[in-house]
Amino acid sequence: MxxxxxxxxxxxxxxxxxxxxxxxxxxxxxxSKKAQHFDFETLFQKTIHDQQIRNAERxxxxxxxxxxxxxxxxxxxxxxxxxxxxxxxxxxxxxxANNVQVEEDENDDDVGPALPPGFxxxxxxxxxxxxxxxxxxxxxxSNDDDEDVNVSSLIPATYEAKIVHGHKAVLSLxxxxxxxxxxxxxxxxxxxxxxxxxxxxxxxxxxxxxPAESHVINTLAFSSNGETLxxxxxxxxxxxxxxxxxxxxxxxxxxxxxxxLGNTKGHTAAVNHLCWHPLNKKEYLSCSDDGSLRLWxxxxxxxxxxxxxxxxxxxKTRNAGGRRTIPTTCCYSRDGKLIAAxxxxxxIQIWKHGHNFANVKYLNRxxxxxxxxxxxFSPDGKQILSRGMDDTLKLFNLEKFKEPVxxxxxLPCMFVQSSCGYSPHGEFxxxxxxxxxxxxxxxxGLLFFNxxxxxxxxxxxxxxxGAVSCSxxxxxxxxxxxxxxxxxxxxxxxxxSIRGALLCATRPVKRVRTNEVVKEEMIIAPLALEMFQPxxxxxxxxxxxxxxxxxxxxxxxGRKKPQFRKPAEMPMQGTSAGGRLAKSGGTLHSYIAQExxxxxxxxxxxxxxxxxxxxxxxxxxxxxxxxxxxxxxxxQPVPIFAEDEEEDNEPEYKxxxxxx
Length: 660
Description:
The protein has 660 residues and is α+β, with helices and mostly antiparallel strands. It has twelve helices and 34 strands. The protein has a four-stranded antiparallel beta sheet with strand order 3-32-31-30, with no helix packed on it. A four-stranded antiparallel beta sheet has the order 4-5-6-7, with no helix packed on it. A hairpin with a 5-residue loop joins strand 28 and strand 29 (456-463). Helix 3 packs antiparallel against helix 4 (64-81). The longest helix is centred in the N-terminal third of the chain and has 20 residues, at 13-32. It holds the Pfam family WD40.
């Protein structure tokens, strides 16, 4: 320690002692402090309650027709949030005190954690009506808005938007995983790409492609990342397109003359259905009219051939007699452990994924009396939903697969591409219907059933047209339906749907300005052009001088422009071309013809007076005319030529002969 520090301590001993005491007190206080604890359940409950209040205020901005229903829902939500039980099953009053100890009721379902101690709720949003028990099944829901939420509020069909695909039936639809794009394909051989962010209220596609020329589009499927689109058509090859509709790969076409399907490297007939693996983004499944299902992988793509040269596995479908049957649809289970196929003989065959696929795990030969249109596994993977051409919709339990658990009849089906499926939360199942020909007026519809007992809950009907394909996107909560008249319908609800059609339904239509011409006059100041701007560092180059202006104008004048010469003539092709004669001597014929011409016309070539050389043959031509004079030898043996007139005389006209 330096001498100055020692002297300062000797001069101020009291200050040092005071600082030491304050440090000791601070240490003692810090040691007595306890770690701060946070009650996460209390924070969550407060967040939920604030969000419910904001939702109630947001719903108040709806139209007058929806205000009564949304107000009741908001009141019910506010009632659910108050009161709540804490961990000791004590009811917390408005002042935050625990008043009465109650027993836990088995029918009383607690929603969320307890309120924080000392929390005083807002009395303006409290409801005195007691909250009733919510039923577990959708069939128990009441249509009274004062009691429970009705069924129609859970199906996003409040608003409708129309999309025109063409004049023929729309057989297939596909959303990407994020819900930003969707595609449509049908009997007009076209695949149209739609982007919600780029569309306006006109709902027009940003691209239309014909991947297989004159083949019908049977099925479409987007990958899990939305980068690859599978296109299955009436052709045996599967097309792989990117998000912008450009084809980057295709599958190989198999040899149709081979009897064993396992020896072919690809399909040999039309592709009926395609689907991606739910977990593996590189694997996809296809079924075809050749009687096989094939597992493919995008890792087998060859850059040189731009083709997937072979499949990973081949699954053969057989009927009861052991012969080949055609799979019309296929699907994966939600966990990807099962593969199901529906055949044209009405059978459903299910294999376990990852095995050799020699034997089926579940089999039902008499599932339907006709071809199966669509299959869909339930969210828990224990049931499977099937739609058939026998006008039925059936629900099977995999444990008891021989007989359906529930069945709905009298659902007309005209297209083998008709769809069925589950809602995003699994409370509904839906299917499409289309009227048959010869039964009067063709009508169709989109039907929603209870997933537990297949009771009809909601119905959307279409006049003079049938519904073919349908897709319900889980993130957007919007339904897209393809109809037989070449149009599509997209249904949404502003209360539950997000993005998607909400972005473009209210967007004004852009004007088409390609045919408009606007005359614009531009005024250009010469000194403002780049060529007049100073570029050097010297004083003369920094400013625009008269000498620089003259130099630029002189360079632009025609005096400095180079004189382009006539380009050289192209070489001749053959003996003669382009009005020019080839040089003689190339062949014997050309050499002889040239020599004969030179020998006969030698005097004519050497004669300098051309006129004298021509008049030399005048006497011979007069005695033995060859061309014109020979024709007038009888009528005019001596030629009479017109005399030169010095003065201009009036022309002589022919005088008509008098009628005899």
